[in-house]
Amino acid sequence: MAKGTLYLIPCPISDETTPWEVLPEANRPIMQSLDYFIVEQVRTARRFLSKAALGLKIDELEFVELNEHTVAGEAVERMIAPLLEGRSAGVISEAGVPGVADPGALVVEAAHRKGIRVVPLVGPSSIILAVMASGLNGQSFAFNGYLPVKGPERQKAIRFYERRAQQEHQSQLFIEAPYRNQKLAEELLQTLQAETRLTIAMDITAPTEWIRTMRISEWRKTKVPELNKRPAIWIIG
Prior knowledge:
By secondary structure, this protein is of the alpha/beta class.
């Protein structure tokens, strides 16, 4: 029996963006062909598929959750069992692309281990879009996830990434919980050197999108807009 295919389905980054404003039309027939979805959260995945207006009966679709609490092992093996029997599945993240800064990587790894074909579909990635718009080094960059929460450890991490950006000429990306963005901006302006460049990319793909790259000396003279509760990518370069 032929194995099914695991499709990685991007979704909008912003709630203010409809699916077909940011997804290519080529994704539509693939999404319409599926009735089994591995998702970060069922509620938001159902809402995304409803907004996509695929003509699917949402209540007849099967969903299983794969999130930050999922541990590799039996649970993930059960998720891919239908694919071994010939059924295809779609992986949906909370926002953007599955498998990148996203627990979907667990099921992708399991699929490769079992010889299941993995197909990534085109869609918005806040990480790639931020690098594209930054003007910083797009030949070599690293995504570092979240900075430490505690002050001394956070400042140590900021200095570490700054040195790495300077010595290796590698752009250093990270994220923060949106409600802590304002505090992080203050810490970056206090900790980084005057000539270091910093990109703040907020609300990517939303109507309120705001992306700026400046040296720290320039940021210190600039009135930064309200940052809290706005998802952002930060880049040191």
